[in-house]
Amino acid sequence: MSNTFSLETMTFVDRARLKLMQFLGEEKVRAVFNGDVDLDLSSGSTEDPTIYGELVSIVGLGTDINKKLIVNVANILDFNLSMPKYRFYIEFYDVKSLSQTAWMATITSLEMNYLVFRYLHESGFIHSAFTLGYEAGINKNPIDGNLVPPGALVSFVQKGLQYLELEANLSNNGTDVDGDFSLLQPLDLITKDVYELRQMIKEKREKLEKEKEKDREKEKEREREREREREHEREREKEKERERQEKEKERDRERERLEKERDREREKDKEKEKEKEKEKEKEREREKEHEEHVEKEKDREREEKVKVKVEEPRVSTGPEPMEITTATSLGSSNEISSSDVTILEGHTSEVFICAWSPTGSLLASGSGDSTARIWTIADGPCGSSIQNTPTKALVLKHFKGRTNEKSKDVTTLDWNGEGTLLATGSYDGQARIWSKDGELKNTFNKHRGPIFSLKWNKKGDCLLSGSVDKTAIIWDAKTAECKQQFEFHSAPTLDVDWRNNVSFATCSTDKMIYVCKLGDPRPIKTFSGHQDEVNAIKWDPTGSLLASCSDDCSAKLWGVKQDRCLHDLRGHNKEIYTIKWSPTGPGTSNPNQQLVLASASFDSTIKLWDVEQGSALCSLTSHS
Fold first, then answer.
1. Model-level pTM?
2. How far is residue 241's CA from residue 554's CA, in Å, rounded to a whole number?
3. Is 247 helix (H, G, I), strand (E, B) or coil?
């Protein structure tokens, strides 16, 4: 059945009109409500037609908004009913999808009166609640008050405001809009319609977008400023690099100038040497002529006299100093007789190290009994009656109180070049200097682990220590001040050795060897090649060759001008724990003798090495 409804007739669907606009468009809805266009309404049936008219469903909308609105109506044609009494609204469960919609009944005036009555009563407005209840006949209302939760009216109003707020945040066609959800004040939601609310939200979003745009512009400006700063920094770096290169060129030119100056000096020296050589040659010629003249005179004298020349026999006194001999040349037995041994007794625990004073008959020893001792050795052969007398020793106590404290084990010691001072290192990480009379001169505290190696430099003003704490330290011997701590190793430092008065080498269980110099923050040379812990290092007498030995069963020779080892000395089949240079070759009192390196291993052998060829000279195998 078709009916035309005027705007006045349809005032009860004002809320529905807004929703219909989202589907049919504003013009068509206005035409329907003005009576210009018919709505096709089909009648329906209900079991109780007297309750109220109910829109049952919306059908036929889909995506075609030009279809006529067809609704099922229950008793809608009974115009004897008071139409304003009935209210309805359309609840769209998903405004983005036209298929999920439903018509739902609104609350009746009786139900609204009851909600207001409950609100007044719950809020304490007793008289107002009584008046409303009397006038509205609340007592005749069939509503079960127990089913209505407290605060129901406030909850519905709040949800309505939220719905309006959500509706205001949608676009005119009911779809989402890009941008953040905007919150509105309750007063605005109550006093303004949806169009005004949408305009407010639009203005807010435009303002927010302008602020964001300003922020983006500011960020772009800051980024441009940062880019300018980075460009300036790059320019400064380039300038520094140019200055560095210029300084490097200047240093190169200075080195070239000095080298040329040295070359000229060497040429002058060579010329002087040539002149001297010429003078010597002339002198030798004159001496030769003189000798020939003298010889002629002697010949004439011998012709007059008869003399018998007796040649004295030459007596062999054994091998020359540091001459290499074989085991057979030493005789059938090379063991030392017990009668030729002097035993020094006094320590109460194992003795780790001993060292002779370079200038006198003093022997220093370090022990696990927390003491070092200075022994005075009498002159004369060992085992003689003089040597058999009890030997007195100066006891250098490293711990006052109980002895045999593990933290006070004396692990290393070294005499200075004059033999006047003895340096000791102990397990507690402290180094000490004692006079040869046993007086404690200085204590050095900085290491955080046991000291395994301690060496004086030749000048005697500095002391070098290596520790389990992975560091080496150069100390001022007089003031006990730490002049520099070197922290390059990644594992305990096992040995240190001076090259000269300011530079030295260190080795470690990290398999590395570093050559360092006082005042330099980084190593001046790094040697790597050992495959296991490096146990000991020793510079040769000239300071040009460094020998090292390792648990990898090899010893190696290193040159200060090369990065790789000069010789890899292999022959031992177990770990090598110590090495020693012979007192021969350049820089020693036997400069014409061959320089030899000795190595001792856990394989019970000692090997002597030709350092020029990198080969073994002989192997001493008497130890078992």
1. 0.49
2. 45
3. helix
